């Protein structure tokens, strides 16, 4: 665990994204399996599994993306970036951070807007509010915004050490990627 997360008052939220995404994955697999079983083995297919699978897939995608965001696992190409001198690179880095934060804030706001506009729009089978789907978008982008705001603040203060790092060797508890 990194030094930035130890002793934090927010420790219960350290794996928030992973817990939500993992739970959504379990629900998704269970719903799809139950749908297959009831369709091909019993004579009465469970129609509700499609709605459950849709909701859990949305939560898996957006919270899984937030977890990947936290660990810096999204793709980036920094070849040209490394050719820029340190002074301009720091200024451009701050500008890029602001643009990323603006995009994440806008996407979160759109998620809130979609949630509010679909509160009265029910899902086809379960009749749950469709806002449950858009809540995944809102929560995922909000988590990405909060995580990136912390990273950007640390970078602004001059701390360039990675915030979180997955274990890379078997000694660190990782897979030992070659």
Number of domains: 1
**Residue share in helix:** 55-70%
Count all strands and give the number: 0
Shape: elongated
Supply the number of helical segments: 5
Main β-sheet: number of strands, strand sense, barrel status? Answer: none
Distance between the termini: 22 Å
Protein name: TRAP transporter small permease protein
GO biological process, one term: C4-dicarboxylate transport
Subunit structure: The complex comprises the extracytoplasmic solute receptor protein and the two transmembrane proteins.
Family: Belongs to the TRAP transporter small permease family.
Write up what this structure looks like:
- With 178 residues, this protein is mostly helical.
- The chain has one domain.
- The protein has helices at 16-40, 49-70, 79-83, 86-117, 131-156.
- The longest helix is centred in the middle third of the chain and has 32 residues, at 86-117.
């Amino acid at each position: 665990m990194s030094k930035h997360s130890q002793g934090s008052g927010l420790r219960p939220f350290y794996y928030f994204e992973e817990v939500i995404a993992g739970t959504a994955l379990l629900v998704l697999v269970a719903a799809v399996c139950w749908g297959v079983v009831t369709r091909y083995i019993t004579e009465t297919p469970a129609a509700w599994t499609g709605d459950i699978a849709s909701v859990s897939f949305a939560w898996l995608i957006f919270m899984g993306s937030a977890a990947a965001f936290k660990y810096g696992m999204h793709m980036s190409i920094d070849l040209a970036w490394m050719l820029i001198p340190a002074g301009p690179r720091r200024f451009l880095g701050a500008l890029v951070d602001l643009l990323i934060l603006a995009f994440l804030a806008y996407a979160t706001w759109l998620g809130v807007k979609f949630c509010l506009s679909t509160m009265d729009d029910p899902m086809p089978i379960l009749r749950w509010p469709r806002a449950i789907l858009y809540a995944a978008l809102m929560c995922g982008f909000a988590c990405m915004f909060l995580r990136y705001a912390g990273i950007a603040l640390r970078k602004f203060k001059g701390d360039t050490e990675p915030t979180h790092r997955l274990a890379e060797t078997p000694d660190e508890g990782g897979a030992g990627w070659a």
